[in-house]
């Protein structure tokens, strides 16, 4: 069914009213409409599109004089060290003493002593040790203090016991900038307890394609909310410029990822944004306009490209626009080896990034040392102008001086350091509980089923009901948010915990059963279900269908409905999803997003007091439009063909008329014309794939025309044109394997290939396989062990040996043969693995997944 346009208009107007007034009073200039004939990145259009910002943090002559004094005393080696940011897993305290890095970071899943359960004392000790090493000039001659950066993106989410707030998508639904500032202030306090100076937040992406795996890191599809929130969170982290800016109560903030990461084609993480320059400003830059205006001190460059050019290498955007035109005088930090993705660069060699305007290389792994050495050499030979180095280091020093790092006590002696009672304290958790309550969006409420009387018998079901890790999502202790248990969240609460506490206090009965089983029939069931945790890359989806191909949660809802039990669905997700069938099988449906560690607050809204009075009403409104089909991933307010199931700004309150019946369309026919041949290798690798070799316990990514690895020899050969195939020779002493792997081992969604009856196909020329064993395999991302828990290898030796020797032939395997062995095609990291034992001499090319080929495949399982 469709929602009346009057409803769409009214809720949108209500939601925007508060923000629009502030937007009108913005201190930026109104950008002119550019000449449509200009090319993206045309300098002649810069002044017409990009404003000069009236940044509230002005340059201080005393600080500028101090920068000049420091810069004049520094060696080239000391300057480059300020520009190198390694990761705690890859450096020692002695490395810091020797090189004097300007900063360092802990990436997702990195902890002091490599211990997930490191205590706050462990974090403080590492911060103190690194700081003291940085100011020790005995080896490097430098006493410039280092600083530690961390991804505190929904609270201090790397630290056990910290307060975890709803992810940004939920905060966008709350639409409460004042609350956002409180959240940022709490986050800053808990970060400072562990001695850390700098947070890589906020993410100010305006998300335009909900297939993107970072959708939940965006506040909204609407740049208005993104801009308002950027101001609020930066003021909360750094303090207001006219009050306690970067005082002992605050940390340095980072607006990220500059620019356009929320608008890539297909929602592909690290992909290509093809927006016009005007759209880049109007839609994707508003978080930077507002965030930089209130004084954000650092900007993180984005992995994505704009019109095919990697942002890390874009002088136009990083220098001409951001620094020269908009007036940003802080520094630009790269993202995780993002410089290595620039054409002609590698992780350990990339002068292009510095020349484009990157000031700090984020360089995890041991690549930091050759990068440091190469950059020094490139300044000496003139590849990088010394003036560019001096500019970068001046910016780094400016931020450090503004933050008082030269004058503040060492990390262990700062105002909040070591006050572990502040981490997860109840006052902080109460702010998070408010955020949870205000983020919930009521999509359906038949016959006013909600709120529930807590004196009833209530069944709580679903695998998300008592799972704090699931409700917290990605970037929670671990990078992807996986492999966490409730024990990893001391002080936290599941959604079930809150329901149980309130129901039992009211004299009711609560039953917890993930599968929905019971001995006493309940009066109502609350079913908590949704997406498993994921972070960038791994979270990218091909379309928005929930539980595509495996509708276990829908089966649970239908089971309870068939037993005459009213069902309240609480949906955990990092994006809007196509859940028409689940909506039809629910009497009430709540979008809970990713609420974080304070799941108990959900009960504050779902349940009344014992006397029937209301505790809290629903306040959340959709900051993302809700799709009516799985392919409506690009669905944004203001689109010409805007036709959502539920519009931007929608959200019921108690007493509102329900608008969703139980007759939503549940069928969806995949358009087979949309399923193309998925090329992997045809002489060149096709994105997002690369080739790797394994033998004798060694693993190497193919980077040359010839490789020798254990028993395996690899070289490129000619089939039709030069080097359009590869030759594999195995000497029989040990097994070997050639793989097509996902770059960065991000999972890829190939479910459409299965629906389109595709086969995994390749051309092969077998010269000697008589005494060989050959298997064709796939790997998908498993819960804990990607290599062992989700893999399948099919023995194709017999089929291969029947092929004419010394001639090119085609071999193909129905994808259903792999799914029958447990492969989840929605989570593929290795779509093709050729495993060989014995004596092998064969050549291979044209690896692809080909729609419609399953029935005629060499090996079919239809």
Could you characterize what this model shows?
It is built from 24 helices and 29 strands. By secondary structure, it is α/β, with parallel strands linked by helices. The two termini are 36 Å apart.
Structural key phrases:
six-stranded mixed beta sheet; alpha/beta; 18% strand; 862 residues; twelve-stranded antiparallel beta sheet; disordered N terminus; 24 helices
Entry summary:
With 862 residues, this protein is an alpha/beta fold.
Write the SSE topology.
Layout: H1 5-24, H2 46-49, H3 61-73, H4 76-82, E1 84-85, H5 93-99, E2 103-106, H6 120-135, E3 147-150, H7 168-174, H8 177-193, E4 198-199, H9 223-238, E5 254-258, E6 272-273, H10 277-284, H11 286-293, E7 298-301, E8 305-306, E9 309-310, H12 315-325, E10 331-333, H13 351-356, E11 361-362, H14 368-380, H15 386-402, H16 426-439, E12 441-445, E13 457-461, H17 468-472, H18 495-506, E14 509-512, E15 524-530, H19 552-562, E16 567-572, H20 580-584, E17 588-593, H21 601-606, E18 678-681, E19 689-695, E20 698-701, E21 706-709, E22 712-717, E23 725-731, E24 736-742, H22 751-755, E25 759-768, E26 772-780, E27 791-795, H23 797-801, E28 808-814, H24 815-819, E29 828-850
Parallel strand pairs: 1-11, 2-3, 3-4, 5-7, 6-8, 7-10, 13-14, 13-15, 15-16, 16-17
Antiparallel strand pairs: 8-9, 12-17, 18-29, 19-20, 19-24, 21-22, 22-23, 23-29, 24-29, 25-28, 25-29, 26-27, 26-29
Show unreliable segments.
1-39, 783-787
Radius of gyration: 28 Å
Helix content: 25-40%
The overall strand count is 29
Q: Ends: how far apart?
A: 36 Å
- Give a short account of the largest sheet: 12 strands, antiparallel
Which word captures the global form?
globular
Query: Helical segment tally?
Result: 24
Write down the overall mean pLDDT: 92
The SS-based structural class is: alpha/beta
